[in-house]
C-alpha cells in the first residue's frame, strides 16, 4: 500500500484511451479481466489507505469490515422487509443500539424507546431522510401552513449536503454566517435573528442543520444554544457529525462534541463509520428521537409489500430509507465492533488525536506556519503567515495558493485546502489505519519545506 503513490498519477481521460469503446461481443477470460484491473484501474486510484493520506477526511478501513462487506455482497439480501431476511433487519437494530450506547446517546435514540437508528449509505442520505421526516412532522402539527414557505438553516461552514438536499427537496436554504471569533461555530443569536426576520417575511423556518466537526476546520456549533431555540420554534434540529461523531466513543471528547446538548435537543443525529469509524464505505448512521416521524414520512406500503399479521413487532427498513432495498451494511459493522470492542475503537480515536497534537505542536513552533483555528480532534488547519506589517490578505492568500499547488503536485503526501472567512488555508486530517508518528513528522517536514520554497519564490 505504502509503496504506491498517494495520489493517482494519471491525466483526465486516461482510461478512455486504454479501454475499448464498446462491451466485448463475446465474454472474456476472467484472468485477463483481473490483469487489466491491475494494469488500468489500480494506477488510476488515489490511495486512500496510504499512511500519508491526510486529505479530506481519511477512511479508516479494516480487514474485518472488508470481509463483512464481501460476505454481504455474496448474500445479496436487500432486507427491505423483516421477512426478506430477518437477520438483516435484526442485526441492524442491534448494532445501532450497541453504537448508541458506545457513543453515550440517550435511550431516547435507541429502538427500545421511541427512537432508533438505522444505517444509511451517506450522511447526505441521512440528512435527506431527516428533512423529509421533519417536513411531515411540521405539516401534521400545523396543517394550515403553506409548505412552499419553508426555509432550512445551515451555517456558512455546513457541508455542501445542506444546500444540496434543499435543492433536491425544492426548499429554500438560508446560509447563516459564522465568525472567526467564535472559532467558526454557529451561535444561537445568529439563528434567532434569522428566525425573526424570516417569520416577519412570511417564511417558515422548520429545519436546522448543526455540525459537530465541520469539514473545513472541525468546528462544533453551539448545540446548547441552538437546541433551545429550535425547540422554542418547533424547528427540527439535525446534528451532522459525519466525521467527528465517532469520537463520542471516548468519554473525554464528549464535552467537546456537546453530547449533553445532543441528548437534550437533537431530533436526529448522524455520524459516518465510513470516515473515522473503522468501517469501509458505506456506513452512515441516522438516529432519530421519534421514529414515528420517519415512518409517517416514508411508509408507502402497496399490497405486495404488506407484512402479514406482524405489525409493530419489528421495524421495516424500507420505511426508514430512500431506496426500497439496501445493502446488508450491519454485517461489516458487527464484524468491526466485535473485533475491536469499545476499547479498541477508543484506542483508534485516541491515537489519532494524539498524532494531531504532535502535528499541531510542530505548526505552532514553525517560524513560517500558523494555525487558522484551534486543532480539532484529528484535524489541523493552517497557513503560511508572515510577520510583514503591510501584507494584505489577498497577497497572503495568493502565496498560500502557490504553496498548496506545490503540495498538491507531490505524489508522496496528500493534503487538501479550504477557505474560511476569506482565509485560504491547508487542512491536515489524520485517520488512516496505518498512519503513525513517522508519517506525520515526515509530512510536516515536507509541508514546511514547501512553505519556505513558496516564500522564496516571492509574493
Ligand atoms: N458532513 C460533514 C461534516 C462532512 O465532513 C462530510 C464529508 O466530508 C459529509 C457530511 C458528507 O458525507 P457523505 O459523503 O457521507 O454524504
At a glance:
With 459 residues, this protein is of the alpha/beta class.
Q: Can you walk me through this structure?
A:
The chain has 459 residues and is an alpha/beta fold. Helix content is 41%, strand content 13%. It has a domain at 66-336: Aspartate Aminotransferase, domain 2 (3-Layer(aba) Sandwich). Strands 1-7-6-5-4-2-3 form a 7-stranded mixed β-sheet, sandwiched between helices. Helix 12 crosses helix 14. It is globular. Bound molecules: pyridoxal-5'-phosphate. Pyridoxal-5'-phosphate binds next to helix 5. The site of pyridoxal-5'-phosphate has 16 residues, from helix 5.
Share of helical residues:
40-55%
Radius of gyration: 23 Å
Note the total helix count.
14
What oligomeric assembly is this protein in? Answer: single chain
| Beta strand count | 11
Bound molecules: pyridoxal-5'-phosphate
Q: What does the average pLDDT come to?
A: 95
CATH class of the domain at 66-336: Alpha Beta
Overall CATH architecture of the domain at 66-336: 3-Layer(aba) Sandwich
Largest sheet: 7 strands, mixed
Strand content: 5-15%
Report how far apart the termini are: 38 Å
Keywords, separated by commas or semicolons:
459 residues, alpha/beta, Aspartate Aminotransferase, domain 2, seven-stranded mixed β-sheet, four-stranded antiparallel β-sheet, binds pyridoxal-5'-phosphate, PyrdxlP-dep_Trfase, decarboxylase, pyridoxal phosphate binding, pyridoxal phosphate
Amino acid at each position: 500500500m505504502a509503496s504506491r503513490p498517494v495520489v493517482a498519477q494519471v491525466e483526465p481521460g486516461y482510461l478512455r484511451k486504454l479501454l475499448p469503446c464498446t462491451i466485448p461481443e463475446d465474454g472474456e477470460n476472467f484472468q485477463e479481466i483481473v490483469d487489466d484491473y491491475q494494469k488500468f484501474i489500480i494506477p488510476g486510484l488515489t490511495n486512500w489507505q496510504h499512511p500519508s493520506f491526510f486529505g479530506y477526511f481519511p477512511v479508516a478501513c479494516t480487514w474485518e469490515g472488508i470481509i463483512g462487506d464481501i460476505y454481504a455482497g455474496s448474500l445479496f439480501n436487500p432486507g427491505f422487509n423483516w421477512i426478506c431476511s430477518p437477520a438483516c433487519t435484526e442485526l441492524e437494530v442491534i448494532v445501532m443500539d450497541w453504537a448508541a450506547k458506545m457513543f453515550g446517546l440517550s435511550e431516547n435514540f435507541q429502538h427500545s424507546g421511541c427512537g432508533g437508528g438505522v444505517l444509511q449509505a451517506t450522511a447526505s442520505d441521512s440528512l435527506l431522510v431527516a428533512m423529509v421526516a421533519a417536513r411531515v412532522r411540521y405539516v401534521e402539527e400545523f396543517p394550515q401552513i403553506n409548505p412552499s414557505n419553508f426555509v432550512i438553516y445551515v451555517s456558512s461552514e455546513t457541508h455542501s449536503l445542506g444546500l444540496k438536499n434543499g435543492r433536491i427537496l425544492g426548499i429554500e436554504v438560508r446560509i447563516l454566517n459564522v465568525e472567526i471569533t467564535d472559532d467558526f461555530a454557529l451561535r444561537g443569536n445568529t439563528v434567532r435573528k434569522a428566525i425573526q426576520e424570516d417569520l416577519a417575511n412570511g417564511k417558515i423556518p422548520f429545519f436546522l442543520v448543526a455540525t459537530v466537526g465541520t469539514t473545513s476546520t472541525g468546528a462544533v456549533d453551539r448545540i446548547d444554544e441552538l437546541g433551545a431555540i429550535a425547540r422554542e420554534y418547533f424547528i427540527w434540529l439535525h446534528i451532522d457529525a459525519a466525521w467527528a461523531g465517532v469520537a463520542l466513543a471516548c468519554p473525554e471528547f464528549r464535552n467537546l462534541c456537546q453530547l449533553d446538548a445532543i441528548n437534550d435537543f437533537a431530533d436526529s443525529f448522524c455520524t459516518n463509520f465510513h470516515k473515522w469509524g473503522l468501517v469501509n464505505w458505506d456506513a452512515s448512521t441516522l438516529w432519530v428521537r421519534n421514529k414515528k416521524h420517519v415512518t409517517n414520512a416514508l411508509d408507502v406500503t402497496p399490497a405486495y409489500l404488506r407484512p402479514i399479521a406482524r405489525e409493530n413487532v419489528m421495524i421495516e427498513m424500507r420505511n426508514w430509507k430512500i431506496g426500497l432495498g439496501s445493502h446488508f451494511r450491519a454485517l461489516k459493522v458487527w464484524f468491526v465492533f466485535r473485533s475491536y470492542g469499545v476499547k479498541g475503537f477508543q484506542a483508534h480515536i485516541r491515537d489519532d488525536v494524539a498524532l494531531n497534537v504532535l502535528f499541531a505542536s510542530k505548526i505552532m513552533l514553525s517560524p513560517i506556519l500558523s494555525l487558522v483555528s484551534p486543532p480539532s480532534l484529528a484535524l489541523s488547519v493552517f497557513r503560511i503567515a508572515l510577520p510583514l506589517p503591510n501584507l494584505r490578505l489577498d497577497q497572503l492568500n495568493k502565496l498560500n495558493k502557490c504553496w498548496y499547488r506545490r503540495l498538491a503536485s507531490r505524489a508522496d503526501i496528500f493534503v487538501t485546502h479550504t477557505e474560511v472567512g476569506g482565509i485560504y488555508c491547508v487542512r491536515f486530517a489524520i485517520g488512516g489505519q496505518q498512519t503513525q508518528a513517522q508519517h506525520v513528522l515526515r509530512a510536516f517536514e515536507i509541508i514546511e519545506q514547501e512553505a519556505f520554497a513558496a516564500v522564496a519564490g516571492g509574493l
